[in-house]
TrEMBL record:
UniProt name for this protein: UDP-glucose 6-dehydrogenase
InterPro entries xrefs: 6-PGluconate_DH-like_C_sf, NAD(P)-bd_dom_sf, UDP-Glc/GDP-Man, UDP-Glc/GDP-Man_DH_C, UDP-Glc/GDP-Man_DH_C_sf, UDP-Glc/GDP-Man_DH_dimer, UDP-Glc/GDP-Man_DH_N, UDPglc_DH_bac
Oxidoreductase in keyword set: yes
Swiss-Prot/TrEMBL catalytic activity: UDP-alpha-D-glucose + 2 NAD(+) + H2O = UDP-alpha-D-glucuronate + 2 NADH + 3 H(+)
Species per Swiss-Prot/TrEMBL record: Thiobacter aerophilum
SMART domains assigned to the protein according to its UniProt record, in alphabetical order: UDPG_MGDP_dh_C
Gene Ontology terms for molecular function: oxidoreductase activity
Domain of life: Bacteria
Domain spans labelled UDP-glucose/GDP-mannose dehydrogenase C-terminal: 320-424
Pathway note: Nucleotide-sugar biosynthesis; UDP-alpha-D-glucuronate biosynthesis; UDP-alpha-D-glucuronate from UDP-alpha-D-glucose: step 1/1
EC numbers for this chain: 1.1.1.22
């Protein structure tokens, strides 16, 4: 099948590449000329395990193309996936300008039947807006060309995006159009060979399913973060509690890790967008509102521990920071907790020396030559002369460090661990003051 992907970011590039990998001919469009030029030179704009090889292989096989030419990309695919960003507007609602612009472009240039698929995370009712934008353009041109609109929300996680796309838990398709559903079934057939994973439903339910999934996962995290705060006060250990409840199959082990608050480009914005949608319809989401409030509080918890130990005025102090990306295996720093923590440390007068296996280039892009932020070439180098170590991202490379070597490099043997990487007893026996989350 010939497929066009509009928006070549984390979702668009992974979707396009994986669809090419199973034999489709794919053209990825982006308005960002630098991104497309880089891809056409054989480069890759994001760090995502396994993606680079897959892109190279499919480009070499002639199945994967990158362009900034809108007319060409619209003409190319019978199926047009919209995978552009839907960032938060000032009031927290999803900003649909890029989705609507993509839809208008399709209407402006299409000459034959198209299936237009919303893959971006979009509020309920967006498919109607996409349909209206296409119709408006067709009417302007004075033509009547048939098209279908479907919702196909994406559930991939950054850092495991290729794996998630190639082996999905489920494929949600929202459409009221039999022809579009049949085409979507054909596209996804290679991804569900051992059992049926495609769940077909109406468009509005599909749109809401995406927000429901993210809000549910965010709820589990905020729930555990709150219990971790309580466990600390009670002298209980949240790690034992996590195992104790996760073993119940009705609860399960996933997404029960307390930490520095959820971040990334999805949970914070999607929880807020759901709140806005509900407010617009006169519904109060009491649980979801509390989830967001708890997360805002959680982002300050590690900072408060640091101030509790060193005082509110951190002038002249330097902290080693392990981890800049919002989670391991990505270079994405959108809504990363590291940013809140670093900026809080700076406000209190401290400086930071950070190490991250892949996100330091992204931090440089965001912070430029910020004098209060230095970078280290290794985790150990970040420690040299620092007043304490602050762990923000649970990269594997931080999991089994040489504690003796660490003690020798730090000015003071103090660790603030926002990800509970170590056994408190082991770290304390190695001579450290250790401040984990919800453990004693
Ligand atoms: N990142 C994730 O893990 C993830 C997972 C599931 C769903 N989503 C959702 O998918 C959507 C895309 O997210 P992302 O992280 O890939 O965003 P991104 O910012 O990485 O990529 C979006 C791309 O769209 C391009 N673009 C904007 N307007 C365009 C237009 N009119 N025509 C062509 N290209 C255009 C931008 O230049 C950018 O390269 C969002 O709605 C997001 O919520 C993201
Ligand atoms: O037990 C946990 C699990 C995650 N997190 C945090 O939650 C955030 C999000 O993590 P994760 O969900 O792994 O990464 P994303 O790439 O943001 O993926 C989420 O958001 C995507 C975009 O909508 C969805 O497609 C995915 O299904 C959904 O997991 C990160 O800050 C994590 O550190 C925790 O604090 N504790």
């Amino acid at each position: 099948m010939k497929i066009t992907i509009i928006g070549t970011g984390y979702v668009g590039l992974v979707t396009g590449t994986c669809l090419a990998e199973v034999g489709n001919e794919v053209m990825c469009l982006d308005v960002d000329t630098r991104k497309i030029e880089l891809l056409n030179r054989g480069g890759i704009p994001i760090y995502e395990p396994g993606l680079e090889d897959l892109v190279k292989r499919n480009v070499a096989a002639g199945r994967l193309h990158f362009t900034t030419d809108v007319a060409k990309s619209v003409a190319f695919g019978q199926v047009q996936f919209i995978a552009v960003g839907t960032p938060p507007d000032e009031d927290g609602s999803a900003d649909l300008q890029y989705v609507v612009a993509a839809a208008r472009n399709i209407g402006r240039y299409m000459d034959d039947y198209k299936v237009i698929v919303d893959k971006s995370t979009v509020p309920v009712g967006t498919a109607d807006k996409v349909r209206a934008a296409v119709r408006e353009q067709l009417a302007r041109r004075g033509v009547d060309i048939p098209f279908s609109v479907a919702s196909n929300p994406e559930f991939l996680k950054e850092g495991a995006a290729v794996e998630d796309f190639m082996r999905p838990d489920r494929i949600v398709i929202g459409t009221d159009d039999a022809r579009a559903l049949e085409i979507m079934r054909t596209i996804y057939a290679p991804f569900q060979r051992n059992h049926e994973r495609l769940i077909a439903m109406d468009i509005r339910s599909a749109e809401l399913t995406k927000y429901a999934a993210n809000a549910m996962l965010a709820t589990r995290i905020s729930f555990m973060n709150e219990l971790a705060l309580l466990a600390e006060k009670l002298g209980a250990d949240i790690e034992h509690v996590r195992q104790g409840i996760g073993s119940d199959p009705r609860i399960g082990y996933h997404f029960l890790y307390p930490g520095v608050g959820y971040g990334g480009s999805c949970f914070p914005k999607d929880v807020q967008a759901l709140q806005r949608t509900a407010a617009e319809h006169g519904v109060t989401l009491r649980v979801i509102n509390a989830v967001e409030q708890a997360n805002e509080h959680q982002k300050q918890v590690l900072l408060n521990k640091i101030k509790g130990r060193f005082g509110d005025d951190l002038s002249g102090r330097r902290f080693a920071l392990w981890g800049l990306a919002f989670k391991p295996n990505t270079d994405d720093m959108r809504e990363a907790p590291s940013r809140v923590i670093m900026e809080g440390l700076w406000r209190a007068g401290a400086t930071v020396r950070a190490y991250d296996p892949v996100a330091m280039h992204e931090a440089r892009r965001i912070y430029g030559d910020e004098p209060r932020l230095a970078y280290a070439d290794s985790p150990m180098e970040a420690l040299d002369g620092a007043d304490a170590l602050v762990i923000v991202t649970e990269w594997k490379v931080f999991r089994s460090p040489d504690f003796d070597a660490m003690r020798a490099r730090l000015q003071q043997p103090v660790i603030f661990d926002g990800r509970n990487l170590y056994e408190p007893k082991v770290v304390r026996e190695a001579g450290f003051e250790y401040f984990p989350i919800g453990r004693h």
